[in-house]
Specification:
Elements (H helix, E strand, L loop, with lengths): L21 H10 L2 E4 L4 E4 L2 H9 L3 E2 L15 H8 L10 H13 L2 H13 L8 H9 L2 H10 L14 H13 L5 H23 L7 H11 L4 H31 L8 H11 L5 E6 L3 E3 L2 E3 L4 E5 H5 L23 H17 L4 H5 L2 E3 L8 E3 L4
Parallel strand pairs: 2-7
Antiparallel strand pairs: 1-2, 3-4, 4-7, 5-6, 8-9
Helix pairs in contact: 3-9, 4-10, 5-7, 5-14, 6-11, 6-14, 7-11, 8-9, 8-11, 9-11, 10-11, 11-12, 11-14, 12-14
Length: about 375
């Protein structure tokens, strides 16, 4: 049993980083499938049926109507980038570009993506003897570099052929600025990261040779649909942002799972699929009601917030036989890159194992990064 697992989480937000939140989630799904939490001041959907109903509801929005961009980012380059992301928009601003992105993701050759990720892994040498340091570094780096490569962005290399990780660092910096837990310094760094990433994507679009890759395909499809080029650029960057924390969590949680089982000779792809279901990287999401509605048998009001417990749905005893990875969402905001995320997570875990990183050593020193929705391990050499 993980350390401190016997103490139940204080609430559904605290459950995200708890050592073992799943008995708590199962209890919520069984006994309080949809309820109002007066301390958190929001509704909570916990059962699989409730989660599905909320995610499918036409009046559920991903952002509050009066706050399309977090106040801390508003008026900055980071806020402009955030406000253009399709996963942060609904309705007319969301559907056409969402369809274009979904088509591009569905058209990806996953075998090619796997080969590209492995080639990038070969250009990322192990730089530290400490397993924890290497795992923490790789899980935030290789997936982002692989997405950048698929987009057609230029990746710098040194004289030895080692690929630069700079783009991954800027993506992680921007992702941290998006968090409700971000400090003023995090936000300031996120603004600089947004500016750098936007320049990188625009430079790639302007290159005469920029005729291959997902970025070029998005630009072509968006041009045919007369879409705003800045919004297309933002959502190309958004693909890297989505590959950052969520895929890092999938990688890290897979390493924890392997470290607590017989990991030598394990089927890594199957392990990633299992972890996506039982220890999901994205534990919850939110919806904000755009109108009064009857939801899960309860009268909810316009402006009410709903905390959607994807991880509780995954452990709902009433749907135990369902082989669904709720962490990728559902409905109009379901993640179109779920298959790619699994491929990149598998490649990263494979690469770490090939470099003699031992999951059992990692699992002995695991904590979870502070977050309100993402379950991402932070490995330490010390228990």
């Amino acid at each position: 049993m993980p350390p401190n697992a016997s103490l139940a989480p204080a609430d559904p937000i605290a459950a995200v980083t708890h050592a073992d939140p799943y008995p708590y989630y199962r209890d919520l799904a069984s006994t309080r499938p949809f309820y109002f939490d007066p301390a958190l001041k929001l509704w909570v959907a916990a059962s699989a049926a409730a989660v599905a109903e909320v995610l499918d509801h036409a009046d559920g929005r991903v952002r509050p109507a009066a706050q399309p961009v977090p106040p801390s980012l508003a008026g900055s380059a980071a806020g402009d980038l955030f406000g253009r992301l399709i996963r942060m928009n609904d309705g007319v601003a969301h559907a056409p570009l969402k369809a274009i992105v979904a088509r591009q993701m569905a058209a990806l050759d996953l075998s090619d993506a796997r080969s590209r990720a492995r080639a990038l892994a070969a250009a990322l040498p192990r730089v530290d003897h400490d397993d924890a340091h290497e795992a923490n570094r790789w899980m935030f780096t290789l997936p982002v570099l692989a997405i950048a490569d698929l987009l057609g962005l230029p990746l710098e290399r040194d004289t030895d052929g080692h690929v630069s990780t700079r783009v991954a660092g800027f993506v992680a910096t921007f992702a941290a600025a998006m968090s409700p837990l971000a400090s003023p310094a995090d936000v300031e760094a996120g603004v600089a990261a947004a500016q750098w990433l936007t320049r990188l994507a625009q430079t790639a679009e302007d290159r005469e040779t920029a005729d291959i890759g997902v970025l070029a395909a998005l630009a072509q499809a968006g041009g045919d649909s007369k879409m705003d080029p800045a919004t297309l650029t933002a959502n190309a960057i958004g693909l890297m942002i989505q590959s950052c924390e969520a895929t890092a969590g999938l990688i890290g949680n897979t390493l924890v799972y392997l470290g607590r089982s017989d990991w030598q000779g394990a089927d890594i792809g199957a392990s990633v699929d299992r972890v996506a279901r039982i220890d999901p990287p994205v534990q919850n999401t939110r919806r904000f009601m755009a109108a009064d509605a009857m939801l899960c048998g309860q009268q909810v009001k316009e402006g009410d917030a709903v905390l959607v417990l994807l991880a509780a749905a995954a452990h709902d005893p009433s749907s135990a036989a369902e082989e669904r990875a709720w962490t990728f969402g559902a409905g109009r905001h379901g993640c179109p890159g779920d298959a790619l995320a699994r491929v990149l997570a598998t490649c990263t875990v494979d690469a770490l194992l090939a470099r003699d990183v031992h999951p059992d050593r990692l699992a002995a020193g695991v904590r979870y990064r502070p977050s309100v929705n993402a379950r991402i391990p932070s490995f330490s050499s010390n228990n």
